[in-house]
Amino acid sequence: MSSTVRVLLFATAREAVGRPAVDRPVPATGVTLGALLDDLAREHRRLAPVLRVSRFVRNGRYVRGRSARVRPGDEVAVHPPFSGG
């Protein structure tokens, strides 16, 4: 079993980090989504303002709140606001 969480980055989140995904180590007990996001924001300063306005999907389901747990093997997608036509 993987000891990481894969974070998929879209739109401005991808631009801020410079790649489409990052793998983050997490303990077997997992971490809160908030802790994971805070860690990413510290490592990628340009990502911090994007995370404040983004929505998050864990394993295909939208997550409300930063207290949700993410565990090894989970996939978290970062969806910044977007518009289109």
Give the spatial strand order of the biggest sheet.
Answer: 2-1-7-4-5
Q: Taking all residues together, what is the mean pLDDT?
A: 94
Percent strand equals 25-35%
What is the count of distinct domains?
1
Low-pLDDT runs of 5+ residues are: none
**CATH fold type:** Ubiquitin-like (UB roll)
* Sheet/helix structural class: alpha+beta
**Biggest pleated sheet:** 5 strands, mixed
DSSP summary: helix tally: 3
- In the CATH classification, which architecture applies? Roll
The helicity comes to: 25-40%
Morphology:
globular
State the name of the first-level CATH class. Alpha Beta
Topology as a string of helices (H) and strands (E): EHEEHHEEEE
CATH superfamily: Beta-grasp domain
> What would you report as the Rg, rounded to the nearest angstrom?
12 Å
Task: Briefly characterize the structure.
The protein has 85 residues and is α+β, with helices and mostly antiparallel strands. It is 27% helix and 32% strand. A five-stranded mixed β-sheet has the order 2-1-7-4-5. A two-stranded antiparallel ribbon has the order 3-6.
Protein model, in words:
- The protein has 85 residues and is an alpha+beta fold.
- It has a single domain (4-79), classed as Ubiquitin-like (UB roll) (Roll).
- The protein is 27% helix and 32% strand.
- It has helices at 11-17, 33-43, 48-52; strands at residues 4-9, 21-25, 31-32, 55-58, 61-63, 69-70, 75-79.
- The protein has a 5-stranded mixed β-sheet with strand order 2-1-7-4-5. A two-stranded antiparallel sheet has the order 3-6.
